[in-house]
Amino acid sequence: MPALPAIDHLALTVSDVEVSVLFYSRLLGAEPSGTMLDGPFIRRKFDLGGGASLGLTEHQAATGENRFDEHHPGLDHVGFSVASSAELLQWAAHLDSIGVVHSGLIDAPYGTALNFKDPDGIALEFFVSQ
């Protein structure tokens, strides 16, 4: 069996790509690195470092009837790894500075999490392993 490859990209479906671009630009401190219009959608791409990217996709056929719900089959949350508890505290301060409601630091036997949601309710997390 070949070695498991790293995740190259994550594409999230959003209800309004421009609203999401504003949120993720403020969150990541970066502007989108590209726009894709080669399908019945618009996708804006952010580079995350290490060759990975995040795509925000607004589909033309989206119904807008269902918001993200981590309790339904599919995506539960997106977790971003941070190096230390000190860095996690810096992210909490950053979220406060841009007006994003978050959980505060949540300790568990396996690590510490900082949970929050994007404008579509997609669950996001900064996480440091213990």
UniProtKB/TrEMBL annotation:
Database matches in Pfam families: Glyoxalase
Name under which the protein is recorded: Catechol-2,3-dioxygenase
Alphabetized CDD domains for the sequence: VOC
Domain VOC residues, every copy: 6-129
Highest taxon listed in the record's lineage: Bacteria
Record's keyword terms, sorted: Dioxygenase, Oxidoreductase
Organism listed in the record: Paeniglutamicibacter cryotolerans
GO MF annotation terms: dioxygenase activity
PANTHER family named among the record's database cross-references: GLYOXALASE DOMAIN-CONTAINING PROTEIN 5, GLYOXALASE FAMILY PROTEIN
